[in-house]
Each structure stands twice: as C-alpha cells, then as structure tokens.
Design a protein that fits this description.
The complex is a heterodimer of chains A (about 290) and B (about 325). Chain A has helices at about 1-30, 40-55, 60-85, 90-115, 140-165, 165-175, 175-180, 185-215, 220-235, 240-260, 265-280; strands at about 120, 130, 135-140, 215. With about 290 residues, chain A is mostly helical. Chain A is globular, with a radius of gyration of 19 Å. Chain A starts with a helix and ends in a 14-residue tail after the last helix. By secondary structure, chain B is mainly alpha-helical. Chain B is about 75% helix and about 0% strand. Classes of the chains: A mainly alpha (about 290), B mainly alpha (about 325). At the A-B interface, helix 4, helix 9 and helix 11 of A face helix 5, helix 10 and helix 12 of B.
C-alpha cells in the first residue's frame, strides 16, 4: 500500500515533466499538424541553458529557469521561421523529415559545444526529504518544486489560451487556419507564438529534470521527447487538458512498471500503450471522432 | 527493350569484374572493402524501405526493427545451431516478414504521422525486447557469429533484392501500390484491396530488411541491440528521402553517396552528423521531393540515348 503510494508520488513527479513537454507537442500539432520532432531537443537545450546560467554565471534557480524559458521560446520561434515556415504548403512527410533534421542538428551542435559526456547539474536547491506517515512515505523538496512549478505553468497556460486575444487566435487557427485568416487573424504570428509557448514549457521541463535527476546530456531529449508525444496522443492530440492527463498517466504507468515489473521494459510499455491507444481510439482519450471527408 | 536488357546485364557484370579485379590486385584495401559492403547493405535497406515509404506512400519508421530480427536470427542459428548461413538468411527474412504481417495488419489502418509514430514504437519495442532476452546476449549482443560472406555473394544478394523490388514495382501489383500512394480513397473506389496491398508491400519491405540484417551479422560477425535503434531507421529514411521517395535508382545513388560521405567524415563523427542534418534540412527546404523525385534513371537508357544521338548525327 505505502509502496504503491510512494510510486504514485514518484510517478506524478515524472509525469509532470512529460506533461510539460507534451503540452508543446499538442499545441504545435493542433495548430499546424506537425510532429515537432525537435521538441525533445528544445527541452535538452533548456536544461543546458540553465546549467550554463548556474555554473558559469552563478545565478540562482529561478532566474536560471526564467532565462532558459525565454531563450528556448526564441529558439522555438527561430526554428519555426527557418525550417518549418518555408514548408507550410509542402507534403507532411517533408516537414516531418525537416523536423528530424532539426532534431539531429540540435543534438549534435550541443555535443560539439558542450561535449558528448553527461554533465552534473549543480545543486541549486538544498536537498530536503520530508517523511510522512511514520516514515512510510518519502517526498523530497525537489519533487514538490517540480509539481508546484508544473501546476503554476499549466494554470498560466490555461489563462493565456482561454482569456487572452492571442489564445483566442490560437484556438481559431487550430480550428481552421484559412477561416481565421479571413477573420483578420495573423496566422504566422499566431503559429510563432504557439512555438514560443510550447518551447518555453519544454525548457521548464528540461530544467526541472536537470534539478531532479542531477545529470544532463545532449541526447537526453530523445526518449522523453518521444514519450511526451505518446502522452499527447494518449490524451488526444491537439487538446491541452489531454496532454496534461496523458503526461501524468504515462509518468505513473512508467513508475509502476519499473516498480513492480522490470525497469528495463518501461520504455517498451510506453510505446505499447501508444500503439494500443492508436488502434482502439486513434483520436486519444479526450479526442472527438472526426470523419474524414472525401 | 531487349537491347536495354543486354546493356543492363553488361553493366552489372562490368561493375562486378572491375571491383573483383581491384580486390584481387589489392588496390582496394580492407577499409575500402568495408565501405563497399556497407554501401551494399544500405542499398538493400533503402530499396526495401522505398517500396513501403516511396512507392506505397505508407510512412514507416521501424525498418531497423526488421533488420534486427534478421540479424539476430542469423546470429542465433549460426552460433547455437550451426546452420549454414544462407538457410538462416532465408529464415531471418521470413521471420521479419511474419513480423511485418503481424505489425502491418493492425497498424496500417493508421495514416501519415500516426503510422510513422506507431511503426517507430514497434521498432523500439522489438529492440528493447531483444535487449532484455538473456539468451540473445542482452545489451552486449552476440559476438562470435561465423563470418562467411564474400564479395560475390554480397553482390549477388544485393542484385537479387534490387531486381525483385524493381519487378514488383513494374508489375500490376506495383501499379496498385502507386495508386494507393496517389489517392487511397480513389484506389479503393477503383476496386483495389488497399489493406491487402499495403500489408503486402510492408511484408516484402520487412523481408528484405531482414535479409539485410542477416547479411550484416554474417559479414561483421557481431551484433548488438543498439545497432538497430531508432537512429538506424532514420539513417535509412534519410537515404530514401534524399534519393527521392519513389525512385529506386535515387535510393541506390544516395546510398552510395551518403555512405561515402559518412565514411569520409568518420574521424569527426559529430561534425559528420551536423553536416548530415544540415544537408537534410536544406534538401527538404529546396527540394522536398528529393534529388530524383519519383524519376528513375538507368545506365542502359543513357547508353541507348547516346547511340541514338550518334545515329542521328550520321
């Protein structure tokens, strides 16, 4: 019982990171129907920027987090402008391959700049473990930070999407970009804005993972990136609450699999879940079924 | 038509003789030889993936998984059961094809990006499962596979792969596959059993990927699960896309060019990958259909045109 609850806490912590990355995936997919393969690498860049801020510029945790988010927002916009915008009207396969190219580029540039080895993420926050219920449950302050920061960012995102003009434009473009253009919405600006927000969230995820797992490396984005996509599909791609639900569920399932089964299979389980969901309900848990028109 | 046929055979024999002679007289050292073999394996992989991605238009990202199945079949059957290589190669191909069927039947209902992600997932699942089976050597793989493949058999296997796939494309099956690529709904309306053809193309592609994997382990003598990861699938995809989705000659040319480029840049692996990705992005930006698009070029046609041109002048 206590082990289960402990796993649940660990799962929610891991899930909050997946959720943060999945939000970016789902927003970008919702608006231009692109699996942004480079998204996981933006998350990696985020972790490295925070690393540089803390180690070389001696900043605290919060300033490093904010700088990393701003930097990655810019990076996301630049990637969109240079690599994806010229291909707006090309086939989906060529855009997907460009995204793979951008992903490889970010990974390998980072390997050249920072070296291919893992780096130790500095301890910006003192370790504190809280023992609950007579030592049955263990929760660290890092876990609390991760969950709280994730929830704050999600509330912010929800506010932006629901209550601001830009959020309204995002929803309109996601519905029908041509109609949105006719209504006087600047579609390009809206898409850039979506990339900026998504990338900033991914960066936050990267910083939190650096803080929690202590080690970062240039390829750290590959697997979480794929899994965050699984999470986005799980909840119904293009749907923001779906990405949160998917992220947390995937994190919990993964910790339970490593806790009770074998940690070797946890990655395989993520993909197996993805395939099952795609086969049973291709639009995801919260997705609506839309008939294809001929 | 007959003339073209003869010229093609002559060219094939010519290439074979030249390289055999060069090897015989030691002009080609072991390093160059290794790269020639890598080119041949990449050609097999690219041509078979092109049948799925380029000709049938079904975006698959799990080719390395099928390659792993073939490689491990040969690895296990030659080391633990001392079966001759060629039998294990066929078994490996058939096993990969069976997996292609099991995976393809449900997954090919998906379209575009979703299909790509699902096949990617399957490729990774195959790799992770192999990695966790103690009998298959776990993460360190199998090391003492008998190496018995020479240049001639390598060349012949690659040729057979190309010839079979080109003939499938030129047959009525191939036209059905192209129809599915162009417009699946219209193809279905014209009476093409799209599920059957899509699964068939997927199985044939998987079969030859399995053969390529088997040849890989038969030549190098060692295999590890990590060789067949997601990046390997992407490598093959890059070759196909660069040559042009739907162009078999394009796949062959880009397999040669890309393998040579990466061999040349071998000493700086990171710069290699940066260049690789930049080339990939630039080609997609300026030539999204790949170098050759869906066009085919054949050496025979070049020769014939030359002759015809000469005839006109005289």
């Amino acid at each position: 019982m206590w082990t289960f609850l402990q796993q649940l806490i660990n799962g929610i912590t891991l899930g909050s990171v997946y959720a943060l990355i999945a939000l970016g995936y789902t927003m970008v997919y919702g608006i231009i129907k692109l699996i942004n393969f480079a998204h996981g690498d933006v998350y990696m860049v985020g972790a490295y920027i925070a690393f540089i801020c803390v180690v070389y510029l001696h900043m605290g945790f919060l300033p490093a987090l904010i700088i990393s988010m701003v930097f990655c927002a810019l990076l996301g916009v630049i990637i969109e402008k240079l690599a994806y915008k010229p291909l707006r009207n090309s086939s989906r396969i060529s855009v997907l391959i460009t995204a793979i190219g951008v992903s490889l580029l970010l990974e390998n540039l980072m390997q050249i700049i920072m070296g291919a080895d893992s780096r130790v993420f500095p301890k910006v926050v003192a370790d504190n473990n809280y023992k609950l219920f007579n030592n049955h449950l263990l929760i660290s302050n890092k876990q609390i930070y991760m969950i709280i920061i994730t929830i704050i960012l999600m509330i912010l995102l929800n506010y932006v999407v629901k209550n601001t003009k830009m959020g309204k434009a995002m929803r309109a473009v996601a519905q029908d970009s041509d109609a949105a253009r006719l209504m006087g919405i600047n579609v390009d600006t809206t898409i850039s804005f979506t990339f900026a927000i998504g990338s900033a969230l991914a960066a936050a995820g990267g910083v939190l993972v650096g803080l929690y797992y202590v080690s970062i490396n240039p390829l750290m984005g590959v697997l979480p990136g794929l899994k965050a996509f699984v999470a986005a599909v799980f909840g119904g791609i293009g749907i923001i609450p779906g990405a949160m639900l998917g992220g947390f569920s995937l994190g919990i399932v993964e910790t339970l699999v490593s806790g009770y089964g074998s940690s070797m299979y946890k990655d395989a389980v993520a993909f197996a879940i993805l395939i099952l969901i795609l086969l049973v309900k291709p639009t995801g848990l919260l997705g609506k079924n839309i008939k294809e028109k001929v | 038509m007959r003339k073209k046929w003869i010229i093609n055979i002559l060219i094939i024999i010519f290439i074979y003789t030249i390289i055999t002679l060069l090897m015989h007289f030691g002009v080609i050292d072991d390093y160059v030889k290794l790269n020639i073999f890598l080119i041949l394996i990449n050609i097999m992989l690219a041509v078979s993936l092109n049948l799925i991605n380029g000709i049938t238009g079904q975006f698959s990202l799990g080719h390395a998984g099928f390659m792993a199945i073939g490689a491990y079949t040969t690895g296990v059957l030659t080391t633990n059961f001392t079966l001759p290589f060629y039998i294990t190669m066929i078994i490996g191909g058939i096993l990969a094809m069976l997996f292609g069927f099991i995976i393809g039947l449900p997954v090919l209902r998906l379209k575009g990006d979703y299909l790509a992600i699902a096949t990617l997932g399957f490729g990774e699942i195959i790799r992770i499962i192999i990695q966790n089976i103690e009998y298959l050597g776990g993460a360190s793989g199998i090391n003492d596979i008998p190496q018995g493949l020479d240049w001639t058999s390598f060349y012949v296997i690659t040729l057979i792969t190309i010839i079979i796939i080109v003939n499938i494309i030129k047959s009525s099956y191939g036209r059905a596959l192209i129809a599915i690529r162009e417009d699946e709904v219209a193809a279905e309306a014209m009476g093409i059993n799209t599920t059957f053809y899509k699964v068939l193309a997927f199985m044939i592609g998987a079969f030859f990927a399995g053969i390529a994997g088997s040849v890989y382990s038969g030549y190098f003598g060692y295999i590890q699960p990590d060789i067949f990861n997601f990046f390997k699938s992407i490598d093959i995809l890059v070759i196909v896309v660069l040559g042009g989705l739907g162009s078999i000659s394009g796949s062959i040319i880009s397999a040669i060019v890309l393998t040579l480029i990466s061999a040349y840049l071998q000493e700086f692996p990171q710069v290699r990958m940066v260049l690789y990705s930049v080339i990939l992005i630039l080609i997609m930006l300026f030539r999204p259909q790949g170098l050759l698009g869906t066009k085919e070029i054949s050496l025979a046609n070049l020769f014939l045109r030359k002759k015809l041109g000469g005839g006109n002048n005289a």
